[in-house]
């Protein structure tokens, strides 16, 4: 029995009928597709490398402590590994539509919250896996670790042998409640022993971050991008070679993330222009998650992320000025360490589990006008990976939307490429393809500027 941290618990309680909070991936492989029974057996055999996938969430009575992870007594791998057939002709458009439908569906939170779908019938003898995991289970980095449990670095596949798995007996309610109370008392004792220095430190971090957050959230923005969302999603992708991104970085400076944000700003510029609402002052405010996971926490299955607000200068017509503006903001945020402030706030809020449960459930149901999109960048594996001897050709992310945000953008690197996965509300964002095409045009525009640079 392992207890959630504050952010995991917040993600769990924030789930609602129009905002399923799962992250996902769409991975395409060279063919032929494996037989479904063989895939099920191999995934089950690999779950020993991802033991969280054998557990479910158990809440504590009266929310006196954060929920705990317990072994799923009803676990059956067939409930989590599913199959479907892409519509003909099985091209990129059919896969995009299928991914949007599958990734929209909520996960059953009374069971281990993950699914993997085998997609057959793709063109060019290809097949795909569409996976989704609830955000309370993993953050972006841990999500890549989890996917890694199913992947190999060697194309010479040796079948793994399934092992008998017996769940640990589920603790009775009184034991969960007693454990929760004991954990709270231990926490209070640690704070008393350390003379409340962690609380003071976290309070200072929060106070120090407030002016920077307030300044960035005070300006005008494109509130038309926010609004009510329904339960269905659209999904799309854009792609760039990492060599292209490196050429831009070497010429103009900055990081891969800076270039990705500048390209995203171009995509939103095209979207706003197509909607007839672009002007020279147009700004799209993005919340950019930042990992605060230390190197010794790699592989720990819990969320260790914070976030910072970044203004995307969509009204600026000059691509170099857009890149410079984004880079200056990111450098400033890193120097101020504002991500630590939000992380500290979550730790402070985590000291009151009942308040956290109520706050998370309420906050993410309400529409807010300050943040217009989410843009997250996760480094993926730099080498080719395989499932059952078949090479993975594409790795594309899916990021949920909530709190009135109608569009999110996930960025993942893999095997020399940089993939942008775009999520949009199905009814409010029928023009998601305009955004994805605009992101690719943003890369091309910066490449053109790099080619002309002295």
Morphology:
globular
CATH class categorisation of the largest domain: Alpha Beta
CATH superfamily of the largest domain: Nonribosomal peptide synthetase, condensation domain
Q: Which strand order does the major sheet show?
A: 5-6-7-2-13-12
How much helix, percentage-wise, in residues? Answer: 25-40%
Characterize the biggest β-sheet.
6 strands, mixed
Number of helices: 12
Number of strands: 15
| Rg estimate, integer Å | 22 Å
Strand content: 15-25%
Q: How does CATH name the architecture of the largest domain?
A: 2-Layer Sandwich
What is the typical, i.e. mean, pLDDT?
83
Flag low-confidence runs. 188-215, 297-304, 339-363
N- to C-terminal distance:
61 Å
At the third CATH level, what is the topology name of the largest domain?
Answer: Chloramphenicol Acetyltransferase
Structural class: alpha+beta
Order of helices and strands: EHEHEEEHEEHHHEHHEEHHHEEEEEH
Number of domains: 2
Written account of the structure:
The chain folds into two domains: 2-175, 2-Layer Sandwich (Chloramphenicol Acetyltransferase), CATH 3.30.559.10; 220-339 and 351-383 and 394-452, Nonribosomal peptide synthetase, condensation domain (Chloramphenicol Acetyltransferase), CATH 3.30.559. The protein is built from twelve helices and 15 strands. The chain has helices at 6-14, 36-46, 92-104, 140-148, 173-193, 197-218, 242-252, 256-274, 319-336, 338-349, 353-363, 432-452, and strands at residues 2-3, 22-30, 55-58, 68-71, 81-85, 114-120, 126-134, 233-241, 284-291, 305-312, 373-378, 386-387, 390-398, 407-414, 417-425. Strand 14 (407-414) and strand 15 form a beta hairpin. Helix 6 (197-218) packs across helix 10 (338-349), helix 8 packs across helix 9 (319-336) and helix 8 (256-274) crosses helix 12 (432-452). The N and C termini lie far apart (61 Å). Mean pLDDT is 83; it is low at 188-215, 297-304 and 339-363.
